[in-house]
């Protein structure tokens, strides 16, 4: 398996634009997590899914953020409209049950 | 909700010195995991502790899980330059919430 795959690796967009981040988890993993990492706030859990169902989205900062997992092999995190304070590295991670989590390479988002 | 606190935020050591980072949870954890993130990289799993009072070793790294399953520590003996990075603990119930991390720098 190629591991958790995120795309794009880098995204630069203008304020107000819609941004969609993509994640392909490792096949067979039941859990999928979305994190945001910044120097100020560290690794923040935004939302996580279990068997494609969103379980806890209390970390999603605002209504501008939304996440979906239409099937076991794909998830998206969307920001609409984007703002400069959304600039961060966004990580997707997957895990089988409550064991080791595997992280993707991350998407570095810059909103100007 | 669950919160995981980690200290110190930064640690700078001379190569050969020891290093310890501490993690505390506001709630009892089913397990705790430790990750390492190199500069510019992504978190990589190191180990998972499940049992109360558990101690595990990986070469120069020693991991402990508290008796109450609410605190944990990572100790590195005789640090090397390859140990540089940020070490995170993560409290795992169903969700997985990370501490703020301890950034370790090692002076050769």
Report on the structure:
The complex is a heterodimer of chains A (112) and B (108). Chain A is 0% helix and 55% strand. Chain A has 112 residues and is an all-beta fold. In chain A, strands 2, 4, 5, 6, 9, 10 and 11 form a 7-stranded mixed β-sheet that branches. A 4-stranded antiparallel β-sheet of chain A has the order 1-3-8-7, with no helix packed on it. Chain A starts with a strand and ends with a strand. Chain B has 108 residues and is mainly β. Helices cover 0% and strands 56% of the residues of chain B. Chain B has no helices and 11 strands. Chain B has strands at 4-7, 10-14, 19-25, 31-37, 44-49, 55-58, 61-65, 71-76, 85-92, 96-98, 102-107. In chain B, strands 2, 4, 5, 9, 10 and 11 form a 6-stranded mixed β-sheet that branches. In chain B, strands 1-3-8-7-6 form a 5-stranded antiparallel β-sheet, with no helix packed on it. In chain B, strand 4 and strand 5 form a beta hairpin. The interface between A and B is medium-sized, with 23 and 21 residues.
The poorly predicted ranges of chain B are: none
Number of helices of chain A: 0
Helical coverage of chain B, percent range: under 10%
Assembly type of the shown chains?
heterodimer
- If you average the pLDDT of chain A, what whole number results? 95
Compact description:
Chain A has about 110 residues and is mainly beta. Chain A is about 0% helix and about 55% strand. Chain A contains no helices and eleven strands.
What does the secondary structure layout of this molecule look like, with pairings?
The complex is a heterodimer of chains A (112) and B (108).
Chain A (H helix, E strand, L loop, with lengths): L4 E3 L2 E4 L5 E6 L6 E8 L3 E9 L2 E4 L8 E7 L2 E6 L8 E8 L6 E2 L3 E5 L1
Chain B lengths: L3 E4 L2 E5 L4 E7 L5 E7 L6 E6 L5 E4 L2 E5 L5 E6 L8 E8 L3 E3 L3 E6 L1
Parallel strand pairs in B: 2-11
Antiparallel strand pairs in B: 1-3, 3-8, 4-5, 4-9, 6-7, 7-8, 9-10, 9-11
């Amino acid at each position: 398996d190629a591991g958790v795959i995120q795309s794009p690796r880098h995204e630069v967009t203008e304020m107000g634009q819609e941004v969609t981040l993509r994640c392909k988890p490792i096949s067979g993993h039941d859990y999928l997590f979305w994190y945001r990492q910044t120097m100020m706030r560290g690794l923040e859990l935004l939302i996580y899914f279990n068997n494609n169902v969103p379980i806890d989205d209390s970390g999603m900062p605002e209504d501008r953020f939304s996440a979906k997992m239409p099937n076991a092999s794909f998830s998206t995190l969307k920001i609409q409209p984007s703002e400069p304070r959304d600039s961060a590295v966004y990580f997707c991670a997957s895990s089988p049950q409550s064991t080791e989590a595997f992280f993707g390479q991350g998407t570095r988002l810059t909103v100007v | 909700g669950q919160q995981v606190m980690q200290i110190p935020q930064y640690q700078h050591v001379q190569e050969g010195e020891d290093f310890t980072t501490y993690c505390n949870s506001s709630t009892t954890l089913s397990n705790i995991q430790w990750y390492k993130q190199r500069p510019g990289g992504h978190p990589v799993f190191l180990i998972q502790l499940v049992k109360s009072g558990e101690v595990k070793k990986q070469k120069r790294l020693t991991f402990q899980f508290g008796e109450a399953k609410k605190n944990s520590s990572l100790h590195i003996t005789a640090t090397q330059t390859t140990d540089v990075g940020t070490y995170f603990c993560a409290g795992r119930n169903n969700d997985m919430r990370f501490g703020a991390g301890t950034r370790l720098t090692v002076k050769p």
